[in-house]
Design goal:
The complex is a heterodimer of chains A (484) and B (472). Chain A is an alpha+beta fold. Helix content of chain A is 40%, strand content 18%. In chain A, helix 7 packs across helix 8 and helix 7 crosses helix 9. Chain B has a domain at 7-228: Amidase signature (AS) enzymes. Chain B is built from 15 helices and 11 strands. Chain B has an 11-stranded mixed β-sheet, with helices on both faces. Classes of the chains: A alpha+beta (484), B alpha/beta (472).
Chain lengths: 484, 472
């Protein structure tokens, strides 16, 4: 039996839980720094993070603010009433013996993420998203009889976003994860740095031949879109293989081995805890009034799906759009450009961004955050091309100068001697010389072989150092040879 | 026994230089030493207390203002985190724990010049009504050494009555300030829930834990509350303090409507207790106070509801004592599982374990709805019945406890019997209302009268209680 022969008989069903680390200055319940990236172990802690006797959690209102922004990014509003609950289990990196989370009344209920699958837009519904504190980090040094606990991360605010099981392929899972990542960055709720684990994905996968869902497994802690795709793919194949062999799928938690590119069993459902959730009596419920909700709604920036719709008339290819959307700065710049100038200019600028600027960024010469994107300069530069003052090749070289050093594009063109020769008298001299040097070609043109015109124009361009306005050059050549 | 002047008078003396804070501290420390047989104190904080007294005396001699509690020694129940002594909460599992930070209440009192001189004994983790559950020792009632002082703030109440300090701090989760006040003949004040920060106080049941003073008079209690009350950015459940000073005790008794809670005056109440209340009512009628009987039909369910909600929160709050970061950690444990099991098994006493078991049970899936959720429904009902009663009455009164202090060992073997001691106090905790126990003029063992009012009406309650105290 080959899996590839039978796999199409199964429908995979995938739901994704994503932990997003919110970019608050301080922790969710303690006035201690939240950026644990480069900190020495156990330096970002207080009596609250340590779970000292008498220590009480006090909710960080900025986390509520960011979660509310996330709600709008997910196309819904934050709940007017939500509350925090305690989830109990014992582990050394959980100092209080419980994690503060939101159980049955989370800050976000509903919403959706719009994804593009093979040029079809699909809405993936969101079940819920809740605020919770992260645990600390345990490490188990190999060969040692101790483990180490770093509580810097303990109490970091997380937003756990749970999707409905509406994804059906590994590719869809990847696209959804990527889109969620973009939403969180655009909403500016998270640094969304995957390397630092700012977003971690858990994928729930099951396969079934019928309408009834199969037994699912949960593969936890994936920290790249690629590993989401690979893990889902692996799980689908693994589960189909087991079922084809007549075996059962165990409901279990699995991990992902990035080296072996395999999922592996971590714990079965039998080990599941009774977390004994109950409302945390130390934290009053979160009540959001209409004024606050309206204010957050108003401050939301334009989101990727709207930008994509806005970019549609520019007729850009998909990879260019993806490049622009990936960089918030580029996309928002283009958004402003569109509102200020013609489609022709906007398209030209879009391509410059997606190709010229992107290549400078990808070589590491600069970053999207550092490059100078001045809307007037870009529009003027594009207009110079439209007006035949500048060849498109010359314009591209000015783009590089503009984003690094800034300045007036016209002056840059002049200084670099890139302005097109659009003055007939100046160009005539070159044309005459080219015709004189290429009499055979001129003869060909005369006898009706129009291909040779292109050759002559090329020679004029060459002789002018690329500055000749090609249309004018052609016009002058025809005139000189005596054809109208 | 040392008799302390009213706190205001002491402060006036220290502020004018007439009294030395150092002398007051020495006097308190001496009283603590001579009252050792009562087991009221777990530890003295002598060095730090003397340093602080010295500083205050220096400040005063320079003509500086030294605060509203300048030089006043006080004693904190040993579940308050205080720098300079261990904080044990009366438990073995926290033996040797040195607090790295201080309770907000302590900070606030110290910023007004008060000096903490000792930590008082308590039922371990405040679990109890007699102070017999302390893992260290049993506190004795100053009026009769064979009797309990009540609990769980038994050490605090006994220390005030023994003159070890002008006031002590206690915590009241189900009656733990008022019951010992009633049994020892002191004033015990439980403020509105959230009026005093719980930060830095070892949590028992977070939704009912309240911090309050145990004093010789209502006036003293009002001054201590005045210095502790208000919002704290380390406790999200704190509320704004009253704009009016808690020390403003002016009130006109004439025409005040007081409900006598019939559920608190029925069977099970000792005749002496009932008579003491009734004769006090008779006296007060002459001042123009209007008394009327009132029934709160859900009151008989309060205790049952409390003994579900409280252990649920206790089981959760005690999770942090796992032997990994501080407190007792079993020295023989070779792996994490054993460390958890053995540290907790040996570190916690019987009552803590009992409450962890009950709490874990009522929060378990499948039992949550039948126990925890139902208990919360009762709680809501109680809140409604009380607020309805406060539509008709300014205050509600009854005895603080159905009995006077009972003999040591009498109820220790039967937890249910012990739980019944809280029957008249838990409702105020479940509903978050302020309540005070003041001693009645009796010849035998002390009897306390409990006065309750609606939430945030602390100023009125203190004023009323102070007048009643004087009239009786």
């Amino acid at each position: 039996m080959k899996i590839s022969d039978v796999i199409t008989e199964y429908t995979p069903t995938i739901g994704i839980e994503c932990h997003v680390q919110l970019k608050t200055r301080t922790k969710l319940f303690a006035g201690v720094g939240n950026d644990a990236r480069e900190a020495e172990p156990n330096t970002l802690i207080s009596h609250i993070c340590l779970g000292m006797p008498g220590a009480l959690p006090v909710l960080n209102s900025e986390a509520v603010h960011l979660a509310s922004r996330a709600a709008f990014a997910l196309n819904t509003s934050p709940q007017k009433f939500s509350k925090f609950d305690r989830k109990h289990y014992f582990y050394p990196d959980l100092p209080k013996g419980y994690q503060i989370s939101q159980y049955d009344e989370p800050i976000i209920l509903g919403g959706y993420v719009e994804i593009n699958i093979n040029d079809r837009l699909r809405k993936i519904n969101i079940t819920r998203a809740h605020l919770e504190e992260d645990a600390g980090k345990s490490t188990h040094p190999a060969g040692k009889d101790y483990s180490l606990v770093d509580l810097n991360r303990a109490g970091t605010p997380l937003l756990e976003i749970v999707s409905e099981p509406e994804l059906h392929t590994a590719q869809e899972a990847k696209v959804y994860s990527k889109e969620l990542y973009l939403l969180m960055r655009y909403a500016d709720v998270s640094d969304a740095n995957l390397y630092y684990g700012n977003m971690r994905f858990d994928v729930n996968v099951s396969v079934s031949k019928s309408k009834e869902l199969g037994t699912r497994t949960e593969t936890k802690n994936l920290n790249s879109f690629r590993s989401v795709e690979k893990a889902v793919d692996y799980e689908i194949k693994r589960q189909v293989e087991l079922l084809e062999k007549g075996q059962k799928i165990l409901q279990e938690t699995r991990g992902w081995d990035d080296v072996k590119q395999k999922t592996f069993s971590q714990r079965s459902k039998e080990d599941a805890h009774d977390y004994r959730y109950f409302p945390d009596p130390d934290i009053p419920p979160v009540v959001l009034d209409d004024k606050f909700i309206a204010r957050v709604k108003n401050e939301m920036p334009i989101m990727p799906s709207n930008l994509r719709k806005e970019f549609l008339p520019l007729n850009l290819d998909k990879s260019a759009i993806d490049t622009l959307i990936d960089s918030i700065n580029a996309a928002q710049f283009l958004h402003n450009v569109i509102s200020r100038t013609s489609t022709e200019n906007a398209k030209r600028i879009a391509v410059w961004l997606a190709v010229e600027v992107q290549s400078i960024v990808s070589t590491g010469e600069s970053t999207w955050e550092k490059v100078k994107l001045d809307i007037d300069s870009f529009i003027r530069l594009s207009e110079m091309v439209s007006n035949n003052e500048l060849s498109s090749t010359a314009a591209k070289s000015i783009v590089g100068e503009l984003i690094i050093n800034g300045g007036d594009p016209k002056k840059i063109a002049k200084d670099k001697n890139l302005l097109q020769l659009s003055d007939a008298s100046e160009l005539e001299e070159i044309v005459n010389k080219v015709i004189g040097d290429n009499s055979n070609a001129a003869q060909d043109v005369k006898s009706g072989e129009m291909k040779a015109v292109g050759f002559l124009v090329g020679q004029v361009m060459k002789a002018s150092g690329g500055k000749a306005n090609p249309n004018l050059a052609k016009e002058l050549i025809m005139k000189q040879i005596g054809i109208n | 026994m040392v008799n302390w002047d009213p706190i205001e008078k002491i402060v006036a003396g220290v502020s004018s230089g007439e009294l030395k804070a150092m002398d007051l501290v020495e006097r308190a420390l001496k009283a603590i030493d001579s009252g050792r047989e009562f087991n009221a104190i777990i530890a003295k904080i002598d060095d730090r207390a003397r340093r602080r007294a010295n500083n205050i005396d220096k400040e005063v001699s320079k003509g500086k203002y030294a605060g509203r509690l300048a030089g006043v020694p006080f004693i904190a129940k040993d579940n308050f985190l205080v720098i300079g002594a261990e904080t044990t909460a009366g438990s073995n599992i926290l033996r040797g724990f040195n607090a790295p930070y201080q309770a907000t209440a302590i900070e606030k009192l110290e910023s007004e010049g008060a000096i903490c001189v000792a930590k008082a004994n308590l039922d371990a983790f405040a679990h109890g009504s007699s102070t017999e559950n302390s893992d260290f020792m049993i506190t004795k009632n100053p009026h009769d050494k064979t009797k309990v002082p009540g609990g769980s703030s038994g050490g605090s109440a006994a220390s005030v009555v023994l003159g070890m300090a002008p006031f002590a701090l206690g915590t009241d989760t189900g009656g733990s300030i008022r019951l010992p006040a009633s049994f020892t003949g002191s004033v015990g004040y439980k403020p509105t829930y959230g009026l005093v920060s719980r930060s830095g106080v070892v949590a028992m049941a977070s939704s009912t834990d309240v911090i309050g003073p145990i004093t010789n008079s209502v006036e003293d209690a009002a001054l201590v509350l005045e210095c502790m009350a208000g919002r704290d950015n380390l406790d999200g459940t704190t509320i704004d303090r009253s704009k009016k000073q808690y020390t403003d005790l002016s009130i006109d008794l004439n025409g005040k409507k007081v409900g006598v809670v019939s559920e608190y005056m029925g069977t099970g109440v000792e005749p002496d207790v009932k008579n003491a209340i009734l004769s006090s009512i008779e006296k007060l009628k002459k001042t123009g106070v209007k008394f009327q009987e009132v029934s709160l039909p859900s009151l008989p369910l309060a205790l049952a509801s409390y003994y579900i909600i409280m252990p649920a929160e206790v089981s959760s709050n005690l999770s942090r004592y796992d032997g990994q970061r501080y407190g007792f950690s079993h020295p023989k444990a070779k792996n994490l599982e054993d460390s958890y099991n053995w540290s907790r098994s040996e570190g916690f006493g019987r009552e803590a374990k009992r409450r962890i078991m009950i709490g874990t049970y009522v929060l378990s899936s499948g039992y949550y709805d039948d126990y925890y959720k139902k208990a919360q429904k009762v709680r809501t009902k109680l809140i409604n019945e009380f607020s309805e009663a406060f539509n008709s009455f300014d205050f509600l009164i009854g005895p603080t406890a159905p009995t006077t202090a009972f003999p040591i060992g009498h109820k220790a073997a039967d937890p249910l019997e012990m739980y019944l001691a809280d029957i008249m106090t838990v409702a105020a905790n479940l509903t978050g209302i302020p309540s005070i126990s003041i001693p009645l003029p009796v010849s035998g063992l002390p009897i306390g009268m409990q006065i309750m009012t609606k939430q945030k009406n602390d100023v009125q309650l203190l004023a009323f209680a102070s007048k009643v105290e004087k009239e009786l």
